[in-house]
Amino acid sequence: MAAKDQTGLAAQRKNEIIDACETLYRTKGFREVTIKEISTETSFSRPSIYNYFETKEEIFLALLTREYDRWTEYLEGMRPPAGSWEREEFAQALAHTLDGREIMLKIQTMNLYEIEENSRAERLAEFKRSFYRAMLAIDRCLTAYAPGIGEEEKRDFRYAFFPFLYGIYAYAHPTQKQLAVMAQVGIPSAQMTVHELAYRCIRRLLPER
How many CA atoms does the CB half-sphere of 46 hold within 13 Å? Predict the structure, then answer.
């Protein structure tokens, strides 16, 4: 019983640290968020945080893992009877699963390579397992949309859709500086939300039924 209590307490403390990181990241850049700042948002001292995470990057990776778990849970809940989705309806439904996933999209667009390189292998494995569960959930959604879909078609969708997600945040959230320079050199801005961009991508990627 005591071991279970300790495990639950450790999970609670980790979540408090992750929550603090998320709060800061909503208003600050990745490099501006430090272990020291995270500690001021929690009930822990900076040395105490190192009992749970060795680097700032590991905290961000844990946050991203949690975001992927939440997205997967959402994906699991959007499976109507097989074959009942129309193409437009499915594309809209899948795009809507990204509503509220700004933190997930921002982290992987802006800093994922650096975060992975500065995290222990076991922490990275936790994220990769969550990522893979999301891939499997997408596969199940595709099977519900098109019951006769083959493995190759599902693979082709995944390997276009997931890389697309790694860049969508920057297109949906350009900075004022970026917009000004784009206007200066004559590059039109997408001027679309995450949902609008995702819908257009999904709609084009979906196989014919």
Answer: 6
* Residue in this structure with the two tokens 């199940």, named with its chain if needed: 140
As a three-state string, the secondary structure of the chain is: CHHHHHHHHHHHHHHHHHHHHHHHHCCCCHHHCCHHHHHHCCCCCHHHHCCCCCCHHHHHHHHHHHHHHHHHHHHHCCCCCCCCCCHHHHHHHHHHCCCCCHHHHHHHHHCHHHHHHCCCHHHHHHHHHHHHHHHHHHHHHHHHHCCCCCHHHHHHHHHHHHHHHCCHHHHHCCCHHHHHHHHHHCCCCCCCCHHHHHHHHHHHHCCCC
- What's the whole-number average pLDDT of the chain? 93
Note the pLDDT tens digit of each residue in 105-141: 999 999 999 999 999 999 999 999 999 999 999 999 9
Are 138 and 160 spatial neighbours (Cβ–Cβ below 8 Å)?
no
Q: How many CB atoms lie within 10 A of CB 155?
A: 12
Count the alpha carbons within 13 Å of 76 in the hemisphere toward its beta carbon: 9
Q: What is the Cα–Cα distance from 17 to 201, expressed in whole angstroms?
A: 35
Give me the mean pLDDT over the 80-104 stretch.
90
What is d(CA 85, CA 23) in angstroms, rounded to the nearest whole number?
37
